[in-house]
Amino acid sequence: MTEFLRELPKCEHHVHLEGTLEPSLLFQLAERNNITLPSNFPASVAACNERYNNFADLQDFLDHYYVGMSVLIKEDDFYDLAMEYFKRAHADGCVHSEVFFDPQGHVERGIPIHTVVSGFERACKDANEKLGTTNKLIMCLLRHLPAADGLQTIASAAPYYQAGVIHGLGLDSAEKPFPPELFTDCYKTLKDQFPHVNLTAHAGEEGDHTYVTNSLNKLNVTRIDHGVNSQHSDELMAHLAENQVMLSLCPMSNVKLQVVKDVSELPIRKFLDAGVPFSINSDDPAYFGGYILDNYIHVHTRFGFTPKEWTKVVLNGINGSWCDEHRKAELRQKLQNVETKFSDLMTDN
Ligand SMILES: Nc1ncnc2[nH]cnc12
Ligand SMILES: [Zn+2]
Hints:
51% of the residues lie in helices and 14% in strands. The protein is α/β, with parallel strands linked by helices. Zinc ion binds at residues 14, 16, 172, 202, 225, 283.
């Protein structure tokens, strides 16, 4: 079954490039860039891994994550970070990734947005040429910063949206007490300027289901990142299913950040049965102990989806991706090839 899960042409829609910073690369970059980490930062790879098993909640993780990213200084650092992720995801059978990054976390440290985007863009191109994967960049706004800061960030990123280098806008960082409606102007401003831009937002991770509803209604997003708390509103569940609004779920993240004690407590079977589309993602894999395939395996061992159910999940991921129709058709063909290869597994319901 693991081989079947590996070979499925998986799409990842929820991964923060800064969250793919493995401790080994973090220390390597700290040395390369002469960065002294704060004295309370874990001093070794082993100490990092121990710390990563003990996040109290989202904020506790974020406090560490923002310090971790301080080792990223040069264009090559951003390139190396993204390229490591693309190689790792490819080894897991991920064929298409839509990746978040947090420019404000770099610009506020004096790193020009151009340095960040150029490094990531070059990695996207190289991954496409060398690995055959397709990749899209989604810029996120940090919701703990004022919307005015978000508007400035949007203005500074306009050339990259114009050039098609950045494809989407997201909203991340501490969810409570920063509800989506604080960023209505930011989303509207970008969408007015670039009507083809794709919109998403983190919602319903720690915030309740109204964060999901308000992201849909006030920000006009077409996708929701996490969204697990949608389960508490029947009306919202029906809306998500009827309008095929995809949730980008991150099972291992939800355990590490204490949203649930175990993946088995997540409403994944409920979403599947209700026809709410979702994809399975790694969020911040360097911090949460697993990349995309590990997340698939965690879900499989808890929910025992049949191969047919898995192909449905993967098909929903392809359909919910922001790649063009030609690429989607290619990915559907890859999925059919896997179904043929594993036809002896596909006989049940
Ligand atoms: N899981 C998460 N939720 C909100 N913001 C994030 N930034 C990185 N990971 C995040
Ligand atoms: Zn996230």
